[in-house]
Amino acid sequence: MKFKRSERLIDMTNYLMTHPRTLISAGFFIKRYDSAKSSISEDLGIMKATLETQKIGSIEITNGPTGGVRFIPSIGAEEAKTVTEALIKELSEPTRRLPGGYVYMSDILGDPQMIRNIGRILASEYVHSAVDVVMTVETKGIPLAQAVAEQLNVPFIIVRHDAKITEGSTISVNYVSKSSEQIKKMELSKRSLPVQSKVLVVDDFLKGGGTIAAMTNLIQEFDAELIGVSVFAEGSYNGTRSISEYTSVLKVDTSADDTIKITSGNYQKRIFKGEK
Question: Which family is this sequence assigned to (predicted)?
């Protein structure tokens, strides 16, 4: 089937954006649209200029026998700031305060559009890294981990507190939750994480860091490698966290007078590094 240029541009953009970080040969598009190589090259040039100008992502084009085209998703600093400001306004409502210094945010983490944008922010730090899998624990952070994994085009796995029989044999670690001071256990199926995998840990909320530290220990048990830690929000914590290196979208400070102070996390410094 012969495509018009406008049709090619729409279809090619959609294909690349739904296959992020995947190298696709130019021959694939030549055959798909029954078009000349020169026409496909021109189309890719138009797409590259538009996507990069709009800060939606970038198009990487490599030449040679093993060359091709790859879409690298991203989000601009200004759009990320707009997303963050909307989150801060929504989550600053006093009625959202929960006991223990937590803030109710289940509705935010259940909003598909908001989750997608948060996923774009967190994934931006790792689009050029060799991430093989995104890991999270069975909490409200599951949709967020899935959104980050979608942007990076890698699988995501869920660490459970009580393994299901359908998981097969598992590896488990015990840890102390720094927020509740309780000993807990987490397990992961032996089939979930191949040896030497490079793992990005994603969670919804960071306080003392005990849960994330336990996931780090679990990663070591699998002979895998921790690439980084990303969280939606970090809460105030009186003490020394179990982890020191992480990226957060929001920072949540609560006080005894029922006020909530929410500010941007450290993502701007870690991801955009001064970009305006």
Answer: Belongs to the purine/pyrimidine phosphoribosyltransferase family. PurR subfamily.
> Phi and psi (nearest 5°) for 92?
-85, -5
Co-location of 175 and 245 in the same domain: yes
Task: Flag whether pLDDT at 9 surpasses 70.
Answer: yes
Based on the fold, state whether residues 105 and 161 are members of the same structural domain: yes
What pLDDT is recorded for position 207? 87
Work out how many domains the chain is built from and give that number.
2
| pLDDT score of 276 | 54
